[in-house]
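Exercise 7. Given the encoded structure of a 178-residue chain, write a plausible sequence.
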């Protein structure tokens, strides 16, 4: 599976995850990276407000309605690592490393296929997942996706299975351990 397909699938996954059970409340570290680089033309950005979900709210699903009320936003940032952007890429990777440090974010899962790699990281607070970060790398692009709030890994796993997203089905292993 090519990383572009993974990125697309993860984007759909993130959108659906936001609808089905992940409250968003960005911390200052996340905002710093997304605000700084999201304003640059060398980056593609997907960011939206939860009021968008009110249009598609399912009146029969009370859990969905409650989840939508808790959302602030969701962000995805994509960067092309062309030769012209080499210095910017270096700075971006450094800022990601500084603002999402290993001592605060635990690697949850790593998926590697050839030169493509997807890393899931979580930040916990009071034994609850507060941020879920997906970092996707291939030869040409870096994509960072962020969900933050009160995240239920089990709901994310159920959603991944429902969407039949390759590679994300392994989240049920993690969800069953929590």
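Solution.
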């Amino acid at each position: 599976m090519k990383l572009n397909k993974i990125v697309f699938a993860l984007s759909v996954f993130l959108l659906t995850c936001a609808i089905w059970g992940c409250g968003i409340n960005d911390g200052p570290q996340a905002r710093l990276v997304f605000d700084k680089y999201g304003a640059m033309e060398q980056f593609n950005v997907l960011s939206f407000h939860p009021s968008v979900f009110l249009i598609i709210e399912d009146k029969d699903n009370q859990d969905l309605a409650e989840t939508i009320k808790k959302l602030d936003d969701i962000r995805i940032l994509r960067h092309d690592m062309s030769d012209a952007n080499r210095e910017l890429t270096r700075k971006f990777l450094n800022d990601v490393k500084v603002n999402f440090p290993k001592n605060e974010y635990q690697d949850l899962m790593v998926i590697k296929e050839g030169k493509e790699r997807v890393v899931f990281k979580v930040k916990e607070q009071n034994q609850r997942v507060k941020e879920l970060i997906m970092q996707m790398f291939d030869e040409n692009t870096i994509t960072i996706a962020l969900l933050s709030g009160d995240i239920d890994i089990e709901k994310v796993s159920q959603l991944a299975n429902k969407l039949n997203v390759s590679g994300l089905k392994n989240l049920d292993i993690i969800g069953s351990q929590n």
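Remark. Residues 3-177 form one domain. Students should compare their own answers with the one above.
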